[in-house]
């Protein structure tokens, strides 16, 4: 079983298709979506329908929750709020309902997936250091948990202590626990513009990260044509 873990797509259809083509070429047999299908970019309906038709496990992201609700977005940063208001107008009620019904946490095989953290999945905490990761590990009862949300691929390993190790190829070893951020398909923020996702090979117990080029010019043109904030197009090229 080779599982592609992909999330934080954020309505970037070109990046999503490039990642799925790569996962297929990499002989992935199964797919798991880490949430934040919509928000920021200009193709929420296309991305939602692609993921929905895949029929794979999906966990809910904060943008999925905000785009499918009708609550005020006033406390949010203005650019994200503008994109979410626009996204709400693109989705029909059936699509909003599908997003609202997504689960926060799922266990698949012997591992767990969540968009943000297991300690407070509804609070959308950001894990940016090993202390944040420690809170998650207190509630992680499987050896491996995958997450997203910060748009930065990261790997935390818990043995007698919690450490961050480079997000490269990771061998899952007995006696250690792993909390792994799979990065972002549609809006990476680690300075690399290419779409990011991870593959977990269950037989070799190996997690690998993939970076995939896509037609970023097309994505940027669509953002501007939709009347979304231009900085959303600019940030894609900078990977931030
Ligand atoms: Zn996100």
Indicate the topology.
Layout: E1 2-6, H1 13-25, E2 30-33, H2 44-54, H3 62-68, H4 78-90, H5 93-100, E3 105-108, E4 111-114, H6 130-137, E5 144-147, E6 154-158, E7 162-165, E8 170-171, E9 177-181, E10 195-201, E11 206-212, H7 216-225, H8 231-238
Helix pairs in contact: 3-4, 3-5, 7-8
The chain binds zinc ion.
Would you give an account of this structure?
The chain is an alpha/beta fold and 240 residues long. The chain has a single domain, classed as 4-Layer Sandwich (Purple Acid Phosphatase, chain A, domain 2). It has eight helices and eleven strands. It has a six-stranded mixed beta sheet with strand order 3-4-5-9-6-7, with helices on one face. The chain has a five-stranded mixed beta sheet with strand order 2-1-10-11-8. Strand 6 and strand 7 form a beta hairpin. The longest helix has 13 residues. The mean pLDDT is 97. Bound molecules: zinc ion. The site of zinc ion (ZN) has 7 residues, from loops. Zinc ion (ZN) binds next to loops.
Biggest sheet character = 6 strands, mixed
Q: Structural class of the secondary elements? A: alpha/beta
Query: What is the total tally of β strands?
Result: 11
* Radius of gyration using CA atoms only: 17 Å
Instruction: Classify the oligomer.
Output: single chain
Q: Give the overall form.
A: globular
Ligand inventory = zinc ion
**Low-pLDDT sequence parts:** none
Averaged pLDDT, please? 97
CATH topology: Purple Acid Phosphatase, chain A, domain 2
- Sheet-strand content, in percent, reads 15-25%
Number of domains: 1
- How large is the count of helical segments? 8
Question: End-to-end span in angstroms?
Answer: 33 Å
Approximate helicity band: 25-40%
Compressed to H and E, one letter per element, the order equals EHEHHHHEEHEEEEEEEHH
Order of strands, widest sheet: 3-4-5-9-6-7
CATH class membership = Alpha Beta
Q: What would CATH call the homologous superfamily?
A: Metallo-dependent phosphatases
């Amino acid at each position: 079983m080779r599982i592609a873990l992909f999330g934080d797509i954020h309505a970037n259809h070109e990046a999503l298709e490039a990642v799925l083509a790569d996962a297929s070429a990499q002989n992935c047999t199964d797919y798991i979506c880490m949430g934040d299908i919509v928000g920021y970019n200009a193709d929420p309906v296309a991305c939602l329908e692609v993921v929905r038709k895949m029929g794979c496990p999906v966990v809910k992201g904060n943008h999925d929750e905000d785009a499918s609700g009708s609550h005020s977005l006033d406390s949010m940063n203005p650019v994200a709020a503008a994109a979410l208001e626009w996204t709400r107008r693109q989705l029909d009620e059936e699509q909003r309902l599908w997003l609202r019904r997504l689960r926060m946490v799922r266990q698949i095989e012997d591992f767990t997936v969540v968009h943000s953290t297991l300690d407070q999945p509804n609070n959308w905490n950001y894990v940016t250091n090993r202390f944040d990761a420690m809170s998650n590990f207190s509630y992680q009862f499987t050896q491996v948990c995958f997450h997203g949300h910060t748009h930065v691929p990261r790997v935390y390993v818990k043995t007698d202590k919690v450490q961050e190790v480079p997000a490269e190829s990771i061998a899952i070893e007995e006696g250690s626990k792993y909390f792994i951020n799979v990065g972002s398909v549609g809006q990476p923020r680690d300075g690399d513009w290419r779409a990011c996702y991870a593959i977990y090979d269950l037989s070799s117990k190996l997690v690998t990260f993939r970076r995939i080029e896509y037609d970023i010019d097309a994505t940027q043109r669509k953002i501007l044509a939709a009347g979304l904030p231009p900085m959303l197009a600019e940030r894609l090229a900078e990977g931030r």
